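G., before I forget:
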Amino acid sequence: MDSIDRAIINRLQDGFPICDHPYANMAAQFGIEESELLQRLERMLEKNQLSRFGPMFNAVKMGGGLSLCAMQIPDADFDRIAEQVNAFPEVAHNYARDHRLNMWFVLATETPQRIAQVLAGIEQVTGYPVYNMPKKEEFFVGLKFEIRSG
Amino acid sequence: MVLTEKDYQLIASIQDGLPLVSHPYAEIGRQLGMGEGEVICRISEMRKKGIIKRMGVVVRHRELGYTANAMVVWDVPDERLDEVGALLGSRRCITLCYQRPRRLPEWPYNLFCMIHGLSRSAVLASIEQMVSELELEEINHQVLFSGRRFKQRGGHYR
């Protein structure tokens, strides 16, 4: 990853133009050709440094539901339960964390009402309670993630 | 903004990414039977209304070397929540800062923030510095580093 890749990541997390030839437009700002920008994006996607290139939607503004949920799962049972939880398409991401509540996942549903149904479904399938912690107030959303050299 | 059936088709076709070609919006239009102008117009409108909150690269922190991902949770007295939330939200190292409900007795924490760093020690050092500079010693906090990541994807619609 060189300084142009870093610049692409730092400056292209938002503001990708919505016009007829957006890549050419951005490439000019990085001082490279359009074809090079496309190649660099393809390479970073292939290497999994980017999960995708495109829009990030606001689930709530789309009329959907969103929540952070946690569960307390015994170590011996963890993988099996993780598989059951991840099988729900509404589970957007899921991380193990080092706390008594050791499984943390985000639910994204098509409607706010659907959150309760999915939670009930997860509790039923796994046999463990789910702690539901939807956002109450937002103090800061950085959106951007800056990478520095070295 | 009321989303139409056409908007939902558009959302479904771009949620996994834009085509990496010279005229991506024309390409999307071709697949959906819409003109490039219409695609641009609808996507711009969604961007303006905040339905699309941002447009561009979506990074994988870990693959970029930011392997330490901590959720720092605080048990803030209700009357200080706005003040402490604003203080934490102003720190450069913090990427998100939300109030969430306590789940007593198991979970007393009501303020959540995320910090990404190159190592656990770097993340812990910046938390320590933050606590001291913002004089938050009296507020109980815990650092929950992430272990394994089981799943990461954007929300899917339709």
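Chain A has two domains: 3-46, 65-133. Chain A has five helices and six strands.

More on Monday.
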